[in-house]
Specification:
The chain is an all-alpha fold. Helix content is 79%, strand content 0%. Helix 1 packs antiparallel against helix 2 and helix 1 runs antiparallel to helix 4.
Length: 126
């Protein structure tokens, strides 16, 4: 299970736990459910992609995780602005979401560069 070694998976997993705890008292069950679903989607898609065959599939699932993280950040903003979450708690969760989005973007770029190397023709030096 190589995904457990990825810092972005570790942080998104911890964020998911924090989100679940933060929205637990929320009475808007529809928004609460959607936030939780997005939160779970982030580490789950990182893990699924890492365990799939091939770099292209991994990149695909990283993009899904990145999209879910953006969706979650938006819904956390809504929960904050509707006073379902305290401003401090919501802002901390949103900030961590944004950090994870940036990390996913970096990992996508890195994996995409490696993809190009994997498909490069064999070269003999010297």
């Amino acid at each position: 299970m190589r995904f457990k070694q990825l810092e972005v998976w570790q942080r998104s997993y911890q964020l998911t736990l924090a989100v679940y705890k933060a929205v637990k008292p929320c009475k808007d069950y529809s928004l609460k459910n959607q936030i939780q679903r997005c939160a779970v989607s982030v580490p789950s898609n990182i893990a699924e992609g890492a365990e799939r065959k091939g770099r292209k599939e991994f990149i695909h699932f990283l993009f899904i995780a990145k999209g879910s993280c953006g969706e979650m950040a938006t819904q956390l903003m809504l929960a904050r602005d509707l006073n379902y979450l305290s401003e401090q708690v919501a802002n901390e969760l949103i900030s961590e979401s944004e950090e994870i989005i940036n990390m996913l973007g970096g990992l996508i770029r890195f994996q995409s560069q490696k993809l190009g190397e994997d498909e490069a023709p064999y070269e003999v030096n010297g």
